[in-house]
Amino acid sequence: MARSKVPSEERVFSLVLALVASTSGLTKHELLSSVYGYSDRYREDAQRASLERQFERDKEQLRELGIPVEAVDSPGEPGNNQHTRYRISKAALQVPAGLTFTDRELMMLRMAVLAWREGSLTDDARRAAMKLESLGGGRDALSIGVNAGFGTAEPSAPALLAAVEAGQLVEFDYQLPDRDTPLTRRVYPLQLHRFEGRWHLIAFDAHRAATRVFLLARISGPVSVCLPADDDPDRPSAPAALIERAVSDMHELQLATRVTVRVRTHSRADARLARGAQVRSEDAGSRVLEFGTVDLHELAAIIASYGSDAVALEPPELRARAIDLLRAVDATHGGGASSPVTEPDGGSR
Length: 349
What we know:
Radius of gyration: 26 Å
Strand content: 15-25%
Distance between the termini: 60 Å
Largest sheet: 5 strands, antiparallel
Number of helices: 11
Order of helices and strands: HEHHHEEHHHEEEEEHEHEEHEH
């Protein structure tokens, strides 16, 4: 059977919408010929049997998620599954009585769902996502131009999340910015935590018998599950305190590491970096922002990615790293090492 271009989570969600919307239920023919993810292939006779098997698998997936798909026999032909009507009771997707969300809260919850995507959501989270979408209303999180999801830069996320839930020990290569080759780390993943717009792994390091925080973007290669060696410590039995302390340390580091950046007013750099920042000065075309960070290397790369819309001012280490990155790009694309770096107001340095 030719593969559909529709992602499986979109097909299953479209099936849920159709089954909930129909009060009397829909036959298999009606579903396969009209539901997004099935209908694009239903017109080809050779694919009907494969599509029916796909439909049966999708039904079982929904039932495993705790969403009961009801099957109602036709009064005239009981037992004939071609005439059986399928439906989902709206009560199965209702949120608890008295629980309501504003449009903004719905949007933020949808963004949280997007951030994890189908492959890394737990069963409970997938059930919650289905109920969330059934509420309707609010803005589509994709419409606000924010990509909250794990992208190709974080391919390790699903494996790490699975290890968190299973309490497994894993190994991966970790590339520090000041080293030529990655280091192999052997850790018990405790939590994936988003901080400063980037995903971090809070883990208990088996080599150091201490909590460590890793930036997912620096994990290179696969994440491998491994059996504990005789000299490996056990996984912490109460990781909540370790996680809380790690997050607290990140906040303390952020407060201690202050930076200033000049951004072009109303640019994408301004929109991203201004959140939580103090405006130190402002003129007709730009303003100077002050804020904290936990990672000067990553911030330098972000600033450089905005070109002339953002210029690092302080500390000198951040400014030097951003300039080096810009000059490397300039040299790669045919510029000279001495090419000036343009300030947002049109000046150069």
